[in-house]
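Ligand-bound model needed. C2E.
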Amino acid sequence: MQESTGDASLLARLAEGVKNNELRLVYQPKVNMRTGRVIGVEALLRWAHPELGILAPGAFLPVAEHDDLIVDIGTWVIREALRQILIWQQQNLDLVVSINIAPRQLLDPDFLQVLNQCLADEPDAYPSRLELEILESAALENTAVIRALIDACREKGITFSLDDFGTGYASLAYLRQIPADVLKIDQSFVRDLLTEEDDRLLVSGVIGLAHAFRRVVVAEGVETAAQGALLMRLGCNIAQGYGIARPMPAEDVADWVANYEPDAEWAAWDDMPWDMDDLPLLMARSDQCIYVDQILGYLEGKDLNFQPGELSDHHQCRFGRWYYHEGQARYGDLDEFIELEAVHKALHELGTEIVRLKDCGELTPAAAMAKKLLNVRTQILSRLDSLQQQVGIRVAHNKSPTQINVSASTRRAVGIKGGNPVQILVVDDTPTNIEVLAGALSREYTVKFATNGEKALEMANRPEKPDLILLDVMMPGMDGYEVCRRLKENPDTRNIPVMFITARSDMEDQIRGYQVGGVDFISKPFQIPIVLARVSAQLRLKLHSDLLESRAFIDGLTGIANRRHMDEVLENECRRAQRNKMALSLLMIDVDHFKEYNDHYGHGAGDECLRQIGGVLAMMPMRPGDFVARYGGEEFSVILPGCNITGAQIIAERIRVTIEALNLPHAHSTTARHVTVSIGCATSRQTDELTPERLLAAADQALYQAKQQGRNRVVCPLPEGT
Ligand code: C2E
Ligand code: MG
Ligand code: MG
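Prediction:
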């Protein structure tokens, strides 16, 4: 390479700087976003230039890269890092320190010997605290050498990571040959993760690759909480970036580690099995912040950078476009979503007014209004938080076996009366076909229709899911194969069996249909008895698999969740409530004088009584995250996340009244002439040390009081100290 004179003098000055001890290392933390643990730091080089100040490596390392000076610098870095490892070790700070090794240094024939010498000179520092970051591209060119090196270092406990992963086109075969412990996803892919589908696919691919090869995966350059949340969702929990911490001097690390708390937003998204379709919700937060920053920036004299209409029209900003289309379709039924509209509108009104005032030179009223703007932003963010929680709760419960499996068919199988009938969705663009099928099927089933693929996907995704879909293959726009593929891709609709209706019955078509996940074919023109027989056969199969899946979590008698499932949900909800500082209520419901009922009417009747009560609970209109279970014997429980004491009391009273209205005769009750229940409620206080045991004990205590006070009532004590 031809060196310019500028480069030559920089190189000479750098060599002098190395001798004069002008190099420094700063450290950037790597954290596990899920657990909040700081797992290590990356050592990054700085040159404390006497005249130019602190220089980043980009300003000086490139000139050294093709010179032996890089090897001297690298050796200094190893020594300095080991010295620091020992200091932290003595402070009981358990951190792995990773250092960057330049390609030339790595391939230097003496590298291993130098490394050994450095280790020997710092004998008390644990080599297992040292990690070497090598560039993916360098490793690719010299797999045999690198492999030998990695093996030799591994014997000492030193680990390796492949830096800037994704930029070097590593193939699967190479990855197998380079036994690095860690893959670091390059920051260029993380930057646009939320907006660029391609980057998301690449990152998701790298994460998959890392898992498949049992490598740890670390994301570099995480600047926002939303990026972190998405990475976690994609399966990468470890991250490094300005959004967590900027590189800092060694002296600051211990304090930083002691005070580090993971972003609250991560906790909110943590262990939520959210759908990729909920991604816009994640972006909504940053959209709102960007809007406000723009307006505040404008007040400070910066340019406004809005698309036409984006400033004043709350339909036109990215959030608005999402809100009135996809958002509406997905979350339109949630209160938290509906409430967002007004605050979002207010945000745009304020923004427009602030810009107008500034343009008229009225700076003081504009500044006063900026305070209101910040206030509205806080409100939006907190509403988005609650929406996010609601959505997470909904997704979690949609995926839980009770929700999937206490479908109409399962309910029937376990003998609950009053469940919804089996629902079949017919998708066909020809109305006459729909009519013929509906005519045949509606005698036994509830039939719903869609005349195109998009509508079908939307309907299949609704909370009350179809038990079976009859899907036309040939439709304008999205064809049946594509609809089926998407249904199978979405975990929420994956389990719905799809039968194709087709005029084409050649082998290839059928193969394609099975490949995308269809279970059967019905050919046009229909022969109704055959359609009915095949539908019924598929429903029976579905029922069996539903039952198998649900058995572990479902109470066999009532068909609602069992104690085991309830324990699991309660544990999760307690954790979530505490983390998000949300209220959590629990109802314990006990059938009054149930022993007398059993003694008098017999156990068969007793079972039927419990089934009816379970049926009432399962059918009670409650919020999406609410959870109903048979606790055991004649006891039932209801978990109400996000519900305060007043809400819990209202729901409990509604349950009590509805069960009373069943009017199941009970001649041996001393409370009433029919079956009644007593209900105890407990609500967590935000300050409580919230555990399932405490909440259960409090609800039990309230239930005991309800019994003492004469049964057939709700007791809902205020939490202490409120
Ligand atoms: P790298 O190893 O990929 O290190 C990460 C770089 O990304 C660091 O830049 C870090 O400050 C920066 N970074 C971290 N988080 C963020 C973020 O959220 N956003 C953005 N935009 N950047 C972030 P730095 O310190 O300037 O180092 C640049 C590169 O110089 C390093 O990339 C590494 O390849 C090289 N380097 C640094 N120290 C050494 C060293 O001691 N020896 C050698 N050979 N190379 C080094
Ligand atoms: Mg690095
Ligand atoms: Mg990197």
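The chain has four domains: 5-257+265-270, 278-396, 408-547, 563-715.
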